[in-house]
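ok so for the tutorial part 2 we go from a plain amino acid sequence to predicted structure tokens. step 1 is just haveing the sequence, like this:
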Amino acid sequence: MKQARTLTDKELKRLLAVIAKRRYAERDRVMVLLTHLAGMRIGEVAALMIGDVLDRKGEIVSEIHLTPEQTKGKHTRTVVLSSRMRQELMDYIAWWRSQRLNQRTKDDERSLPLFPTQKRSGFNANTACYHIFMLYRDAGFDGASSHSGRRSFLTNLSHKAVPLKVMMELAGHRQAQTTMRYVNVTPDMKRAAVEQL
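step 2 — the prediction. this is what the tokens look like for a chain of 197 residues:
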């Protein structure tokens, strides 16, 4: 089976520029970035609730703790958020709140889907997968799918010589060979390797 295309930093910027021109750009941007910058599966992204990314003080968490029901393997998993991803989430939450003024009391927001659909319900894994696929297609990225962000995330970590054990932890994998299947060896990676000799 052919693997999903990985994106370079330049291609990711191009994708985000295309998303910026769309309706619900704020939502779609953060959904895509959670796959590229945090290595989340699209089903995990779809399962997120507001309470998963905000602590009790209303601050963005530094780690998202996923329950077995939110993960593919039905095991708990911790997603570490970079400062950039935390800022993206902070900006998104501010936008999200501005969109729902006068809809519900603030007390119940923690139990609401982080990424509502047009009908205000949350995405499920299948609808989120198709939605992300269409974003890539509309941006002209053939071969890209909802898995492209996760593959790009692990490829970038490998390129930066992050140890395999750390990559496994960040991906939520239990087997090294699973993690290594995600890594796309690029010409730049090969050139950088031989230059170290």
